[in-house]
Amino acid sequence: MDGKGASFWTDEPVEWETPDLSQAEIEQKIKEYNGQINSNLFMSLNKDGSYTGFIKVQLKLVRPVSVPSSKKPSTLQDARRGLGRSTAVKRRTSFYLPKDAVKHLHVLSRTRAREVIEALLRKFLVVDDPRKFALFERAERHGQVYLRKLSDDEQPLRLRLLAGPSEKALSFVLKENDSGEVNWDAFSLPELHNFLRILQREEEEHLRQIVQKYSHCRQKIQEALHACPLG
């Protein structure tokens, strides 16, 4: 379940209508869009026929990300400052981004999904390979939540314009680019070593909980045995 009113997740694709709009139709769509929003995140038509606007992306990452060890953001606010990655990364550290972190990006109509992913990683100082991530479109319909992974060349702002400003009609989510099995070859040696340490800690904690559970159960059984009268 995700979000209020959503009954369950489904991987059924959302079939958006993506017609080729004339310049007049684009201008009309932009006017309608700007008339419906309750913020200053307007779309603007450019002289060359393209347009600019804002898209909001929610980060739903379950695995840690890698950042330069000297530039690990201590808070989400630090990450949002979008410091560049101008220096070569020699050492990395991994940490979990805050759950459901949200970022607004100012993009062009021709900005592709892959470029959006790269921009998000720069904003949060993430140095992982962008191919490890994917941009999804999310929609709520009749109590169900639909997700569809965007191809690299799709244009999120164009989808935003066609769907309108409603977050229920369309929103964007950044997730791990999972296709089933994890492609461990895509990770660097420091990342792989870090994952092994994480797995070891999780295994040790799981074993501790199991031992504690069975020790407690054994103690209760022994107490019951001692309480039973002989014969």
Provide a descriptive summary of the structure in words.
- Residues 85-179 form the Ras-associating domain.
- By secondary structure, this protein is α+β, with helices and mostly antiparallel strands.
- The protein folds into two domains: 23-68 and 90-181, Phosphatidylinositol 3-kinase Catalytic Subunit, Chain A, domain 1 (Ubiquitin-like (UB roll)), CATH 3.10.20.90; 185-227.
- It contains five helices and nine strands; from the N terminus they run βαβββαββαββαβα.
- The strands form two sheets. Strands 1, 2, 3, 6, 7, 8 and 9 form a seven-stranded mixed beta sheet that branches. Strands 4-5 form a two-stranded antiparallel ribbon.
- The protein is elongated.
- The N and C termini lie far apart (55 Å).
- The relative contact order is 0.16.
Q: What is the CA-atom radius of gyration, in angstroms?
A: 24 Å
The CATH class of the largest domain:
Alpha Beta
Distance between the termini: 55 Å
> pLDDT average, as an integer?
82
Domain SARAH: 181-228
Domain Ras-associating: 85-179
Subcellular location: Cytoplasm, Cytoskeleton
Organism: Phyllostomus discolor
Topology:
Elements: E1 8-10, H1 23-36, E2 44-45, E3 51-59, E4 65-68, H2 76-80, E5 92-95, E6 101-108, H3 113-123, E7 133-141, E8 144-149, H4 156-163, E9 171-176, H5 189-227
Parallel strand pairs: 1-8, 3-9
Antiparallel strand pairs: 2-3, 3-6, 4-5, 7-8, 7-9
InterPro entries: RA_dom, RASSF1-6, RASSF1_RA, SARAH_dom, Ubiquitin-like_domsf
Main location: cytoplasm
Protein name: Ras association domain family member 1
